[in-house]
Amino acid sequence: MTPRSGRLEFPSLTAVWIREWIVFEYYWRTRTFAAVVEPVIMLVAFGFGFGRLVSHVEGIPYIQFVGTGAVATAVLFSAVFSAMFDSLYKRRYQRVYDAMLAAPVDVEELVTGEVLFLGMRAGVYGVAPLLVAFCFGLPPEPAMLLVPLVGVLTGVGFASLGMLFSAAATTFDDLSYVISGVITPLFLVAGTFFPLNRLPEWLRAAAYFNPLYHCVELVRHCAFGLRPGADLVHVGALALFAVLAWRLAVWRTRARLVL
Amino acid sequence: MSFPEVPSLSRTFAPVSPAQAAVRMHGVFKRFGSVRALNGLELEVPGGICYGLLGPNGAGKSTAMRILTGQAVADAGTIEVLGYHLPAQSKLARARMGVCPQESNLDVDLRVRDVLAVFARLYRVPAAERADAIERALTVAGLQARAHDRAVTLSGGMQRRLLIARALIHEPDLVLLDEPTVGLDPQIRHELWSLILSLREQGATVLMSTHYIEEAERLADRVAIVSAGRVVAEGTPAELIEAHAGREVVDVYGSVAELRALSERAQANGVPTRPSGPALTYLHAGDGDEDGDWDGRVPPGRRRSATLEDVFVRLTGDYVE
User: Fold this and answer.
1) Taking the CA atoms of chain B, what radius of gyration do you get in angstroms?
2) Which of A70, A113, A142, B59 is least crowded, fewest Cβ atoms below 10 Å from its Cβ?
3) At what angle do helices B156-167 and B127-141 cross, to 10 degrees?
4) Which residues from chain B sit within 8 angstroms of residue A15, using beta carbons?
């Protein structure tokens, strides 16, 4: 197969995916354990603890409100943390990226392959909280079949954001700033645990720029009734975020890996 | 833009003919901040030979290697690899190149076989040939028995062999080896030397950087001596020795003060010397006059044949590892 310069080529992307898949076969147990156990703990703690104080939010039983919100959290954490920590490890400490770039693979293909893999994995893990929520009485709906797609779209965006931060970081310590300064606010002000309409006006406005908020809304609508007009806007916002973060990640990673 | 056809990647070596240069670097400059890594590098590696880049640490050898793999972009100059122009056609060049870096970049968490399987994919070895390519690489590395062990459990020498076998998985026409034996035991070094020589015998072009003089002397058909980002001398080891150190040299031993005095006197007399630890080496001691003492300007000492080390130290200063 003749490689072509300056294009995203399928053989390069599949090679990146195969590597990720082989590595995933080594660690899938631990990652999957975390992906399933975390939402259970979250639902038990919030559902039974906080749920005693608040029975319904926006007409939805609180445990189901949190259960759908936890999908977005699972997607965010699965995508962004792997992209930040694993890729810094692969770039700086293990130098796997250096090895891959000596083969006919370009930085753009490397980053694209990585974020697509992480996005798809996040889409799968995002389903776990939903399955747990079923056990807590969330009624299954046909539209919920769209949830993995929402998860992949959101996951690609956050994986790209994670790779962007990873490319900007020199050490693992640098990433602490990102976790406290960026990830935690994104995670809390997204309507996951409480509805945004109780927030002050300015904070609510800010939340519209939080991609995770759009994911939370889409997942809730899949569970409790789609709203086509609003949902198209949410999908558009997530797609815009994903494309923007992906291009920035390619740009920063290239600056790091090609001297 | 149209590119030359690239043949299927898995096949026996299609040697680059000696007439066609495998690597051409012309007037290449590269700086990192205030450091000039390459300062007008000129290099032409003929096809089908083992070519040594010899230079002290920091001379620019690794930077030159990184530029050849497209992992660094030159500030100025023209670069051609296997007929492809870099950086524009770097991906095509990389498809026919195998690279073994100085610092290991193995996926150490993976099993040995998986390391090779991933790279067979990255180098686009066709599906039908992948299993054979992996077996062949395991044989080259002598790691058939360790195929299912994680790379991290291998000894340093085994990891280096795996790194080289990984670079050969697609039977490349050009193999770049950046300091292939640094930090290894003498036995393993000799093993790797045999491997490198067998590559050349099969028709591959090998470009090897090293700061071990013995390695260049034993393996390289031609050598470029690199210092401060430029090639300061180029030729076969014999030509370089003849031109820069002569047939014979004389080592004169003495105290530090004595050697300093001798060195100053030699310089005043126009006699080329180079420091060699506890001695001062008088170069070209066989071609001065009949008895080789340059009319008494070369003091009596231990007479021996000149080596590449004499050339290296003369041309790059007194730093040798």
Assistant:
1) 22
2) A142
3) 150
4) 118, 121-122, 124
Give the mean pLDDT of A146-151.
Answer: 95
Cβ separation A102–B71 shorter than 8 A: yes
**To the nearest whole angstrom, how far is the Cα of A218 from the nearest Cα of chain B?**
37
Strands B279-282 and B273-276 come out as antiparallel
Asked if A95's CB is within 8 angstroms of B110's CB, the reply is no
Domains and CATH numbers, chain B: 21-236 (3.40.50.300), 246-305 (3.30.70)
Mutual orientation of helices B127-141 and B112-122 as an angle, nearest 10°?
130
Q: A3 in a domain, yes or no?
A: no
Beta bridge partners of B280: B252, B275
Q: Residue B118's Cα: distance from chain center in Å?
A: 27
Cβ pair A121, A155 in contact under 8 A: yes
> Do residues B148 and B113 lie in contact, with contact meaning Cβ atoms separated by under 8 Å?
yes
Residues A231 and A215: their CA atoms lie apart, in Å, by 10
Q: How many domains does chain A contain in total? A: 1
Can you list the residues of chain B whose pLDDT is less than 70?
1-19, 287-293, 318-321
Degrees, nearest 5: CA angle B312-B317-B321: 65
- Using alpha carbons only, what angle is made at residue A138 by residues A133 and A144, rounded to the nearest 5 degrees? 90
Distance CA(A84)–CA(A169), nearest Å, equals 9
Widest CA span of chain B, in angstroms? 72
B210: helix, strand or coil: strand
| Distance between CA atoms of residues A216 and A212, nearest Å | 6
The per-residue pLDDT for A193 is: 83
Q: Which domain holds residue A17?
A: 10-257
Q: Could you write out the three-class secondary structure of A78-134?
A: HHHHHHHHHHHHHHHHCCHHHHHHCCCCCHHHHHHHHHHHHHHHHHHHCHHHHHHHH
- How far apart are the C-alpha atoms of B42 and B229, rounded to whole Å? 10
Q: CA nearest A14 in B: which residue? A: B121
Q: With an 8 Å Cβ cutoff, is A146 touching chain B?
A: no
Q: Where are the beta strands (DSSP E) in B144-278?
A: 174-178, 205-210, 222-227, 230-235, 248-253, 273-276
Q: Is A1 a domain residue?
A: no
Q: How far apart are CA A57 and CA A196, in angstroms?
A: 11
Mean pLDDT on A112-125: 95
Q: What separation in angstroms does the CA of A50 have from each of A35, A57, A131, A192, A230?
A: 22, 12, 21, 14, 29
* Residue of A212 and B319 predicted with greater confidence: A212
Contact (CB, 8 A) for A73 and A42: yes
A5 within domain boundaries: no
- Identify the three-state secondary structure at position B109: coil
Report the number of secondary-structure helices (H) and strands (E) in chain A. Answer: 12, 2
Give the burial class of A185: count Cβ atoms within 10 A of its Cβ; 0-12 exposed, 13-18 middle, 19 or more buried: middle
**A152 domain residue, yes or no:** yes
Contact B126 A1 (CB under 8 A): yes
